[in-house]
Amino acid sequence: SNLSPLIRARSEGNQVEITGYNVKRDDFEPEYDNDAEFPLAELEIRVEDSEADKATKREMLRLYWKRQKERYERRHFVLSRGLLNVKKQQAAEKKLGKAEKDLAASLRVFSRFQSPEDHATLVEGLLRESRLRARIQQLKEYRRAGVLSMAEAELYEQDKRRRDSEREKLKQQESYLQQPAYKSSSAMRANRYFNRLGSGAAAEEGAEGLGL
To answer: CB 3.0 to 4.6 Å from 67: which of 22, 36, 75, 204, for a disulfide?
Structure first.
């Protein structure tokens, strides 16, 4: 392979269909700020341009350079932090609950301004704080419920899960009963029932009229 060892190492675990990173070209599809080149498509600095026109075009080039710089910095960040390793990222996320995933995701914006070690310390510290807060709330709930031991706490949690499960089943049943399809089928059954009653009543009246 003609790839440098650095590129190969940084792209380990890359799944192009997810990340969009092409290892051989060393770029993303699409790139960050993918339309940055569009304003320059027809740009041409000619000798006969006025100084004002030349100044405008130079400013366009300066702005393009700035956008390119941001693009390369972001690319370097993704590569240097090993973020292309999809399986590794997914494995790390599996260890977290939904609330913890949301917290970690909200902190990613700070990772560009920190070393990997500092960012990991920040995330772990806030996750630990979140877990402690959740545990404190759980213990307060136990106290309000009169739970006095861990054995009682386990029984309380089992009963809580059972109640939650029953509540969810009831909610699903209520949701089903509110569906238009169920209502229409119920109405159809009711109509058939009343039609049968009506037919039976008409038959009885006819029989009486015939003296049967």
So the answer is: 36
